[in-house]
Design a protein that fits this description.
five-stranded antiparallel beta sheet, 228 residues, alpha/beta, 7 helices, elongated, five-stranded parallel beta sheet, 30% helix, 15 strands
């Protein structure tokens, strides 16, 4: 998770930078001593987690967070407990009262990771697939995809309208697809269950008569997926 620190105290920066460096999965992307500079940065960049002080010069943390059009998951870091209620009213993930121990920091981060993971899952577009090729970004309707074949570091995306060869891993493509529609049928194949017309012992027959092999390890979850 990319993190941003907004705090006017140098000591607070040192503590948070140390804690972030010690915590797996966190990466410090930027740090600011005031909300104005942070606002300019966040208007151009996204972040996954914000560590935000409340009492700061120019603009306090509460007003700053209210001004963000799409505020990231936020952990308030402050020496003033009287702001706790208002902080949680702004859907803050947690409220760390200075000075706080590393164990308390980790507990807050775990809450943020859970919120971030949920947001990421909700953001998956289940109607389109966007992948980069040599000409730019290819936009495909997921419903049009019949199956996808992987070959080393490339995939062949077969749709009702044609075939596209993309520099991508099969696992990476699978992560972009609707989990209610697509499943891996073989170590080299992903299939759209809505285009399956027949199930054979070791293969799927698609509506366009394409033969897609079934891998032994994938067979049981594949059949359960198609039948549900």
């Amino acid at each position: 998770m990319k993190c941003v620190i907004v705090d006017d105290e140098p000591l607070a920066h040192q503590v948070l930078e140390h804690y972030i460096a010690e915590t797996p999965g966190l990466q410090l992307a930027a740090k600011f001593r005031n909300a104005v500079d942070a606002f300019e940065y966040l208007s151009k960049h996204t972040t996954d987690l914000l560590f935000l002080d409340i009492e700061m010069p120019l603009v306090n943390g509460l007003h700053f967070l209210k001004a963000l059009s799409t505020p990231p998951p936020t952990i308030f870091t402050t020496a003033y407990k009287q702001y706790a209620y208002e902080g949680f009213e702004l859907n803050a993930v947690d409220y760390l009262l200075k000075p706080f121990a590393y164990e308390r920091f980790v507990k807050a981060v775990e809450k943020a990771k859970s919120a971030w993971s949920q947001t990421t899952q909700n953001d998956v577009d289940t109607t389109t697939l966007l992948v980069k090729d040599q000409q730019g970004t290819l936009i495909l309707k997921q419903n049009d995809i019949l199956y996808i074949e992987g070959c080393r570091d490339h995939v062949k995306i077969n749709t009702t309208l044609g075939t596209h060869v993309i520099y991508h891993t099969l696992k990476g493509i699978l992560d972009k697809l609707d989990t209610k529609t697509f499943i891996q049928a073989h170590r080299s194949y992903i299939v759209n269950k809505h285009h399956v017309s027949r199930i054979q012992q070791d293969a799927l027959i698609l509506k366009d008569q394409t033969f897609v092999p079934i891998g032994l390890l994938y067979k049981k979850p594949l059949l359960e997926f198609i039948h549900n």
